[in-house]
Design brief:
The protein is an all-beta fold and 118 residues long. Helix content is 0%, strand content 47%. The chain has no helices and ten strands.
Length: 118
């Protein structure tokens, strides 16, 4: 199982970023997927989840209406469109299989750093 996250960077408050996660080693199209994030000094927590068919989606309250999770099962890739970002969105962002909880709890990618600062 492998996850490769990309697309992070430094952005000003109110700006946008698009994160990508390429997954391998399991049947991507059959698994729900989620984005998680870990801010400095805090536990890793859930940002958003999407079902295998994209029919069901869940967002953390603080990102609802600003972030959009999506997936392309044809290329085993998960996305997170981040709009109107805030300083509190600063964190390392990770993806994993599962809806709400990481299915592969011991397999994490390197993550992608998002820093929101003026």
């Amino acid at each position: 199982v492998q996850f490769v996250e990309s697309g992070g960077g430094s952005v000003q408050p109110g700006g946008s970023l698009r994160l990508s996660c390429t997954a391998s080693g399991f049947p991507f199209s059959r698994r729900a997927m989620s984005w998680f994030r870990q801010a400095p000094g805090k536990e890793r927590d859930l940002v958003a989840s999407i079902s295998s068919s994209s029919g069901t989606i869940h967002y953390k309250d603080s990102v609802e209406s600003r972030f959009t999770i999506s997936r392309d099962n044809g290329i085993n890739t998960l996305y997170l469109q981040m709009n109107s970002v805030k300083p509190e969105d600063t964190a390392v962002y990770y993806c994993n299989a599962g809806y709400g909880e990481p299915y592969f709890g011991t397999s994490w990618g390197q993550g992608t750093q998002v820093t929101v600062s003026s």
